[in-house]
Design brief:
alpha+beta, nine-stranded antiparallel sheet, two-stranded antiparallel sheet, 15 strands
Length: about 290
């Protein structure tokens, strides 16, 4: 399982508060060992804890509309074949997480548990344990709680396929629209002079009404198909930049506003987003 119970190891001499990756920790009976040579991918995980529509949190919880933002730079790692622990490793870059409360900075410990990608490579799940209470006004997470994140991901292969399907449907719509447009153009074309009859006559013969009806059906069918393919294709503004994820060829895009729960099947307590950590300079507007 990727949601084991765990507690903070306060005797760990390997506490790492910098951005080195991956982070080794001491071996304990309730927390897995993270091998130094694990294959890993760094992501900036941003949690937005607060009341969500129709959430089953307590009545008084976050009723003021207060939110609790948490940013946790984290490595998603897979131990190599020589590692004693074969589970996927979620390793925060720091043993603590901080936010600003009414009385100033609040720093609390955080423990990464594990992560899992569904077999169809569409759903990413991972979790953190909070050894001590997190509280910001009327938003709180009780000590010992596990925050479980789930969200939609798109592999490069899947997104390329969705884009190709949309582009093909768009080409079919353009083709069907062009054929129907040609019919209308011929019907509304200017008349020409006929020497034999001494009068102005239609430049083109009347179209077969069955052919016109068929072209219209083709156009509306192509339009409906393009609409379906557009709906299947995610809005690029709602996706992260492409980042690496161990075991996934070409990397992944993570959809924004994933779901945060208290416990694996617990109530929704917020949303989350992710951004790959790279060496590229970030815009001050991002």
């Amino acid at each position: 399982p990727i949601y084991p119970s765990s507690s903070l190891n306060t005797n760990n001499d390997n506490t790492n508060n910098n951005n080195n990756m991956p982070r080794p920790t001491e071996t304990t009976s309730d927390h897995p060992f993270y091998d130094v040579d694990a294959t890993s991918s760094p992501w900036r995980i941003a949690l937005d804890i607060g009341r969500e529509p129709l959430a089953r949190m307590p009545f008084e919880w976050a009723r003021t509309g207060c939110r609790m933002p948490l940013v946790i730079p984290t490595d998603f790692a897979i131990n190599d074949e020589k590692a004693s622990n074969k589970n996927n490793v979620l390793a925060p870059h720091s043993d603590t997480v901080s936010f600003t409360g009414p009385n100033g900075a609040v720093v609390r410990p955080i423990i990464g548990e594990g992560w899992e990608l569904s077999k169809d490579e569409r759903t990413l799940s991972f979790s953190y344990t909070v050894p001590e209470e997190l509280k910001r006004r009327d938003v709180y997470i009780e000590a010992g709680s596990t925050l479980v994140m789930t969200g939609r991901v798109y592999t490069k292969k899947e997104l390329d396929r969705l884009n190709a399907n949309y582009y093909q449907a768009r080409e079919e719509l353009w083709e069907a629209g062009g054929e129907l447009g040609d019919i209308y153009d011929r019907a509304s074309a200017s008349k020409k002079w006929d020497e034999a009859s001494g009068s102005w006559v239609k430049r083109y013969d009347n179209e077969n009404p069955f052919k016109v009806a068929q072209k219209k059906l083709s156009y509306w069918g192509a339009k409906a198909k393009q609409g379906r393919k557009m709906a299947e294709r995610p809005d690029l503004n709602e996706l992260s930049d492409r980042g690496n994820l161990p075991g996934v060829e070409g990397g992944v895009y993570i959809a924004k506003e994933g779901v945060v729960r208290v416990g694996k099947d617990g109530p929704v307590c917020g949303k989350w987003s992710a951004r790959p950590i790279t060496g590229a300079p970030a815009s001050y507007r991002s």
